[in-house]
Structure formats: structure tokens, C-alpha cells
Design a protein that fits this description.
Largest sheet: 6 strands, parallel
Shape: globular
Radius of gyration: 21 Å
Number of strands: 13
Number of helices: 15
Helix content: 25-40%
Order of helices and strands: EHEHEHEHEHEHEEHEHEHEHHEHHHEH
Strand content: 5-15%
Oligomer: single chain
Strand order of the largest sheet: 7-6-8-9-10-11
Length: 370
């Protein structure tokens, strides 16, 4: 094919997947400009690229694919006006975010399931976090105005944040509409949170008022705050970083499998857009997946807690961010670009896990052998 494709250089296997469609030019996603696009037909991005009129005005783009779960960085109204097709990868990194949240709780409370959990946002990611924590015995509820009882999960109102012991944000960022989420956690609500509560944001930075959080933490040392996403990335508030319990550079969903899934979903979406032969594309997909995923590895563990910590140590990511605090904001993207390979639960095989825990290992996605 003769399509011209411009892509974020951090999309995994971008050349192997998309070169069959045409010529692929890779660039840093955060610094893409209109001039970079030239006469490109296809634009492939991640969440660091704002796709709007300023970027693609007068360009020949016919399809935009974002290898991420959300589209808040796409001006969808403008894309619709231009009749430009677009696609995202909802749920591609949901298992990775589950791993991140469980990794945090394994370190901070050792899976103390007596704690009451509120999950804000019950979509692909929040729903799976709910399921995983419920499997572990936590009392979970979801605050999400777009869900009803048919979802089969325990729903509550956002006001119940004041009674939760663990609060996980997985809501999209919406600045308007019937249910805006921008700064939904403000100073007033922060002051109402239970003493000793754990607050985790692995959704979108702007749903928590970072300035208000900094102000509150100057007076409330009892809160355990974990931020993977920040307002104004990569220009994060370094004073806030010093006061929170754990801070990471927007990598909760950055597992190897999660990133690969995002690329594969956009590969499928582009193929569908171009109405290409499914059989030929399946061969490309199979080859890339075979090269990428490999086999699961046998790992010893006596408990699910051990298995989670074996697969992911959030303290290492926290240390990496703090070690470059004097080099921010540039170092923020460098950390993401050079992020060490993190494999999801499915990559780890526990042949000798206790028989009493076998079902639990399996439900969380670990390989328990034959």
C-alpha cells in the first residue's frame, strides 16, 4: 500500500504492525507539529498528543488512531466536522492498571480486606479494579453516573467518598457536559476524607485539584496519596510529589501487554477503516504477538500477595521519579520512553501455588499451569 503514516515513536511494534499499510514515520508524540505531518494520510498517537485543528488543519489526514483508552486529547468535534475517522483502544491497559492498584495496596496495606473501597469511574478499567478487589474480599462500590443496576456491581453516590478507606480514581476527564469530572475532588471534599485513607489516582490528573491537594497535605499527614497522573503533565507539581506517599510518571497502564494491546486494537481499527483482507492481517497480527509475548515463566509464591509483589514493585517506579525531580519536566517523558518492561499477571506461572489459593490465582489472571 502507499499510505503515508505518522506515528508516535513510543507505540510498540509500530513498524512491524503498520508498515504493511504504507510508509511509517515515527516522531516524539508530545512535540508533533503540523509541519511534521506533511501529506500524511494516517496519524497514530498516544495520550501526550493533542489532536486538534492546530495540529491537523489543512492536512490530508483521513484516520486518527490513539493507542490509549480515552479520547480526551482528541478534538472529536473537529474530527467529525472534517469527516476524519478516529478510533481509540478502550480497555487495552485495564489489566495493567489492575496490577498497579493491587501493587500499591500490597505495599501499603497488605491486602487488608476489612477496608472499604470506593472506585470512582466504573468503565473498562474501574470495573476490572472492582472485580479484582472483590475477588480479594474487599467491600467495594462504584460511583459512576453512567452506570445502573444492570452492570451487576455495587453502585453508590460520589458523596460516599467521606466514608471510604481506599479511594481509586479511574474516571475520564470531562470539563463540561452533564457530569463534569474536572476537579471533582476539590479542597472541600479532600478535607472530608477519612483519616488514614488511601487515595489513588490512576485515571486522569485533572479530576483531582492538585493545588488543593497540596494545600490539604500540608495540614493532613494522615492521608496516603498515590498519584500516577498529574495536572499539567509533564510540568508536574514537584512540591506535591514531596508530600505524597507514592508518585509515578503516568505508567500505571504501561505494561508490555497493555501497550501492545493498544497498538493491536488500532491496527484492527485501521484495517476495518480501510476494509482490508482479514486473513492477511491475521497473519501479521499472529506473527507480531508470537514474537512479542513469548511464554509464561515459572515463579515461586506462597500467596497472592507474594505473586502480586513479584510481578510489580511500585516503589521502584516511585524512586525513579523522585531521582529525577531536579530534571523535570523533561525527565518525565524520558522515564516513560525508557520504562523497563513490565509484564502482566498472565506472564507469571505458579505451578506450586497452594491448592487452597489456586482458584484465586486463576481469577486474578495468573497462569497456574495444568
Amino acid at each position: 500500500m502507499t499510505l503515508r503514516i505518522v506515528a508516535d515513536e513510543n507505540i510498540p511494534f509500530v513498524h512491524a504492525l503498520f508498515s504493511p499499510f504504507g510508509e511509517v514515520l515515527t516522531l516524539p508524540g508530545r512535540s508533533m507539529t503540523r509541519e511534521n505531518l506533511g501529506d500524511a494520510d494516517i496519524l497514530l498517537v498516544r495520550s501526550v498528543t493533542n489532536v486538534n485543528k492546530a495540529l491537523i488543519d489543512a492536512a490530508s489526514i483521513q484516520f486518527v488512531g490513539t493507542c490509549t483508552i480515552g479520547v480526551d486529547h482528541l478534538d472529536t468535534e473537529y474530527l467529525n466536522e472534517r469527516n476524519i475517522s478516529y478510533a481509540s483502544a478502550p480497555g487495552c491497559n485495564a489489566n495493567a492498571v489492575v496490577q498497579y492498584v493491587l501493587g500499591v495496596l500490597a505495599k501499603l496495606n497488605g491486602f487488608d480486606s476489612a477496608k472499604k473501597v470506593l472506585i470512582v469511574g466504573g468503565g473498562n478499567v474501574g470495573g476490572r479494579v472492582y472485580d479484582a478487589l472483590t475477588i480479594l474480599g474487599f467491600d467495594c462500590s462504584i460511583a459512576d453516573p453512567f452506570l445502573d443496576d444492570s452492570c451487576g456491581r455495587n453502585l453508590t453516590d460520589f458523596s460516599s467518598i467521606s466514608t471510604a478507606d481506599i479511594i481509586c480514581f479511574h474516571a475520564p476527564l470531562a470539563v463540561d457536559g452533564p457530569h463534569p469530572t474536572h476537579h471533582m475532588l476539590d479542597e472541600e471534599l479532600l478535607l472530608q476524607i477519612n483519616a488514614g485513607a488511601v487515595l489513588i489516582n490512576a485515571g486522569r490528573g485533572g479530576v483531582i485539584d492538585n493545588a488543593a491537594l497540596l494545600k490539604v497535605l500540608n495540614h493532613r499527614s494522615d492521608l496516603q496519596v498515590v498519584l500516577d497522573v498529574w495536572e499539567n503533565e509533564p510540568n508536574i507539581n514537584t512540591d506535591l510529589l514531596q508530600l505524597i506517599t507514592l508518585g509515578t510518571p503516568h505508567i500505571a497502564g504501561y505494561s508490555f501487554e497493555g501497550r501492545l494491546n493498544g497498538a493491536l486494537m488500532i491496527f484492527d481499527a485501521l484495517a476495518d477503516h480501510l476494509k482490508l483482507d482479514v486473513k492477511t492481517l491475521a497473519e501479521i497480527r499472529k506473527k507480531v504477538c508470537g514474537q512479542a509475548l513469548g511464554c509464561s515463566i515459572a515463579t515461586p509464591a506462597q500467596s497472592v500477595l507474594d505473586a502480586v509483589v513479584n510481578s510489580y514493585d511500585v516503589y521502584l517506579d516511585d524512586a525513579r521519579l523522585r531521582s529525577v525531580v531536579n530534571e523535570l519536566p523533561q525527565a518525565f517523558d524520558v522515564l516513560r520512553k525508557n520504562y523497563p518492561q513490565r509484564r502482566e499477571f498472565s506472564h507469571y506461572r505458579y505451578d506450586d501455588c497452594p491448592e487452597s489459593s489456586r482458584s484465586l490465582f486463576l481469577k486474578l489472571g495468573f497462569d497456574v499451569g495444568s
